[in-house]
Amino acid sequence: MCLAVPGRVLDIGEKDGTRMATVDFGGVQKEVCLEYLPDLRVGEYAIVHVGFALQRLDEESARQTLALFEELGMLQEEFGDPWEQAAAQAGADSPWPFADGPYAGEAAAAQRVQDPYPYAQEEGRP
């Protein structure tokens, strides 16, 4: 799911000729484009979607929305690590997606670099 999330502008600068800001989303900070809201200032809140600030928002509305998203677990869904989320949904205990495969474990890390496709032979690939 892709949400429009309220965030507070922490600082404003320019990157490659584009007005950008660091925006805080209840503890998660992201870089956001301000081209649609050129008069947005540090300390103000905006609704952000796919990296673009789209609409100015008052502080109380922003805080209420962030609290609701947090309660519903939507902030973790939106800003969490997608690999971690996929592993959790699959019921995996290990961060490495092939924990039971031929190159699992710390000792096999070098082998994974040498042979990044350990399942190719099992799948009939050369």
UniProtKB/TrEMBL annotation:
What is the top-level taxon of the source organism?
Bacteria
Pfam families assigned: HupF_HypC
- Return the Low complexity bias intervals: 99-110
InterPro entries in the cross-refs: Hydgase_assmbl_chp_CS, Hydrogenase_HupF/HypC
Residue ranges for the region (Disordered) are 84-126
**Family under the similarity heading:** Belongs to the HupF/HypC family.
Q: Which NCBIfam families match?
A: hypC_hupF
Full protein name: Ni/Fe hydrogenase formation protein
